[in-house]
Amino acid sequence: MMLRHIGHQRGKHPTMTTKAYGAHAADRPLEPLGIERRAAGPDDVAIDIAYCGVCHSDLHTVRGEWGGTRWPCVPGHEIVGTVRAVGSAVTRFAPGDVVGVGCMVDSCRTCEACEEGLEQFCSHGLVGTYNSPTADAPGHTLGGYSEKIVVDQAFVLAIRHPRDQLAAVAPLLCAGITTWSPLRHWQAGPGKRVGVVGIGGLGHMGIKLARALGAHVTGFTTSPEKRQAILDLGAHDVIVSTDTAAMKAAGESLDLIINTVSHSHNLDPFIGALKRDGTMVMVGAPETSHPSPAIFPMLGRRRALAGSMIGGIAETQEMLDFCAEHDVGADIEMIRMDGIEDAYARMLKGNVRYRFVIDTATL
Ligand code: NAP
Ligand code: ZN
Ligand code: ZN
Asked: In the chain, how many domains are there?
């Protein structure tokens, strides 16, 4: 995978030391770190981070579950904050603006995908907000579990929610766009029946967004105690996916399913819940793959299994503006930076309603 080096001279410019939290190895806890951020170049926006959401991808990466983690690892790609300074060529932002940064901080900008506004599928490899090669020290990107970040204006999002909702906006930058993009691509809306599997950070946004788009929404959970809470998020009905009879009764009822589950599991009962020509879109990224689904139920109803990854920058702005207009934000639990290991432990137990958000003032 070829990655474009962002401003290869930047490493020679003065940098600023920033407080951050990260890990030096997969089996080491996260701890306070001092990291360097590049000085803002002409196209850069320097951001004081106010809040950063905690995505399950942070945990997969910092624990080395996907392989390829670069150390030290500073996770965090659900970033909101205030612009502190801008470079001389920045036209879209000014100091004091409230902005967001999601999962990407650059891409090649010239390949077919980038030209189409699908930077997440850049054929030269997107530059992730953390764990991607860069010319900046220490040679790979470091994420939002930190006080400050410097990002090219093309990858900075405008936030139009009221300021007092800022912490609840942070999770939109990954959990929001990752569910919004397939909902839009597969045309969720009035007259469509949408299922969301796994009601964690991504899943709860999937329910809120599918409902706001006008679809009929069914939540699938392994946690019966979440039933009322899932209805309160906007689901029309809830099915406990371990209840075989209930899953059978849901057969052939859905046009689209967004599957957000972070662990390997049997896909067959969910494929059985799709109507003819229905699609299940996988967005969860488990450490080990799911067992292959049975093929005949797919053949016999022309059902499809698909995948989707975050969303493009323009689409992320569209989602943020839609959420500001429809008063949609995440349901969050604010944590201190030094509470991150407890938060990860609770995330692994499915004990989060529905997204932890770090108050970076506690760094
Ligand atoms: P999360 O908050 O931990 O939620 C995952 C949910 O999956 C849990 O709340 C639980 O919901 C369900 N679940 C967990 N373990 C399960 C098991 N063994 N069997 C069945 N269900 C289980 O995680 P998240 O932040 O939403 O992320 C979900 C996944 O999406 C992760 O793998 C993450 O890396 C991935 N992700 C992908 C993208 C992308 O672009 N495609 C972007 C962001 C994240 P219930 O209690 O309701 O069953
Ligand atoms: Zn994420
Ligand atoms: Zn590209």
From this structure: 2
pLDDT at 13: 59
352 in contact with ligand 1, CB cutoff 6 A: yes
Distance of alpha carbon 59 from alpha carbon 331, whole angstroms: 20
Kindly give the number of the ligand 1 atom that is closest to the alpha carbon of 309: 40
CA angle 253, 257, 258 (to 5 degrees): 160
Where in the sequence is the domain holding 244, given as residue range(s)?
175-307
Name the nearest CA neighbour of 73 among 65, 62, 84. Answer: 62
* Nearest residue (CA) to ligand 1, atom 30: 284
Atom of ligand 1 nearest to the CA of 199: 47
pTM, 2 dp: 0.96
* Whether residue 55 is found in the same domain as residue 146: yes
Q: Is residue 131 part of a domain?
A: yes
What one-character-per-residue DSSP string does 156-224 give?
A: -EE--S-GGGHHHHGGGGTHHHHHHHHHHHTT--TT-EEEEE--SHHHHHHHHHHHHTT-EEEEEES-G
In the block, tokens 């959990």 appear at 175
- Residues 166, 18: one domain? yes
> Of ligand 1's atoms, which has the minimum distance to the CA of residue 310?
40
Could you report the per-residue pLDDT of 287-306, keeping only the tens digit for each?
A: 999 999 999 999 999 999 99
In a domain, 224, yes or no: yes
CB 44 within 8 A of CB 9: no
Residues 271 and 348 in one domain: no
Compute, in angstroms, the gap from residue 117 CA to the centroid of ligand 3.
9
